């Protein structure tokens, strides 16, 4: 943190440690995990910490569909993407096949120099698929879709 011009406060260190072991967590997740140990750490403080650490490149902010709120991770400086379950909303990292950013380029960048392409793969995790999409809002498995089509 000091290399980035930030003070290494107890709250920043605790939040960074939590996010290192719990990637893709929201500010509310971080606050909830640290509140008992650091009762003076407010939700607004954690928002400020996440903002400061993102601005200096220590954290990466990700905004994914159906995630509810921004998520944060310590894996920065590479060109990885994410896969998200559409049922339970679990998020995992996936390495970029191409490697270098941006891994995708539009036909016309409208005069902009591209820095990155944020790719989110969406699917159903094995656990949710085994449950047969029983959760609310679930997308049916390929097998269930074929059965349904055959029944028609």
TrEMBL record:
Keyword Repressor: yes
GO MF annotation, one: DNA-binding transcription factor activity
Record GO cellular component, one term: cytoplasm
CDD domains reported for this sequence: Fur_like
Subcellular location: Cytoplasm
Cofactor(s) for this UniProt protein: Zn(2+)
Binding note for cofactor: Binds 1 zinc ion per subunit.
Region: Disordered, residue numbers: 133-152
Entry keyword annotation includes Cytoplasm: yes
Keyword line: Cytoplasm, DNA-binding, Iron, Metal-binding, Repressor, Transcription, Transcription regulation, Zinc
Transmembrane segments: none
GO terms of biological process kind: negative regulation of DNA-templated transcription; regulation of secondary metabolite biosynthetic process
Binding residues for Zn(2+): 85, 88, 125, 128
Family affiliation: Belongs to the Fur family.
Protein's name in the database: Transcriptional repressor
């Amino acid at each position: 943190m000091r290399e980035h011009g930030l003070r290494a406060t107890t709250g920043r260190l605790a939040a960074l440690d939590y996010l290192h072991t719990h990637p893709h967590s929201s500010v509310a997740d971080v606050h909830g995990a640290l509140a008992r140990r650091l009762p003076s750490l407010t939700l607004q403080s954690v928002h400020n910490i996440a903002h400061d650490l993102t601005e200096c490149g220590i954290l990466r902010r990700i905004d994914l569909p159906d995630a509810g709120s921004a998520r944060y991770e310590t894996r920065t400086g590479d060109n990885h993407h994410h896969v998200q379950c559409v049922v339970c909303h679990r998020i995992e990292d996936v390495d970029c096949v191409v490697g270098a950013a941006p891994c995708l380029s539009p036909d016309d960048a409208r005069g902009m120099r591209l820095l990155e392409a944020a790719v989110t793969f969406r699917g159903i995790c094995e656990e949710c698929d085994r449950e047969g999409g029983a959760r609310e809002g679930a997308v049916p498995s390929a097998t269930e879709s074929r059965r349904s089509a055959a029944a028609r």
